[in-house]
Amino acid sequence: MGESTARRRESMSDQALIEGTGADWKTWLALLDERGAAALDHTAIARMLVDEFEIDGWWAQSITVGYEQERGMREPGQRPDGTFSATASKTVPVAVGAAFEQLADPEHQAAWLGGLELSQRSASPPKSVRFDASDGSQVYANLSPKGEDRTAVQVEIAKLDSAEAAAAAKAAWKDRLERLAERLA
């Protein structure tokens, strides 16, 4: 099994794929190869799966990404536009409104961001906020209440140049979210 096959299969097992779509990875890879999917872009492959095989959109996206990784069209973590993204999450010990304030307010950010500056692009208080970061990345934070006094903070860091940059961003944001949680404790 090649490295990409191992990574693809770690993200979704043959059993899960069979249960969700009726076929395993080997079958999907062969079907897409027969239809010339290696010459298609991401959207066209996913559309083919939905239209021709009547696969639900979520499964179509998962199969498409797995196919692209297996055929060397995309690295793990790489988006269709060629950039990379990473995610980090942490549950913090405050209500969603207080967590949103810490994320969105520049005066509060300085205490836990560690030198990174964020410029807010948009917000839907208290559920989400989007930023352009001083390092050139884009940061999307989503907040979900976990009872009255806990909030799950999920951050996606996008527009990264490489898999290595994605790994570094993930580690840096795990540290930042840990500092945020400590500050709120």
TrEMBL record:
Organism: Glycomyces albidus
Annotated protein name in UniProt: DUF4287 domain-containing protein
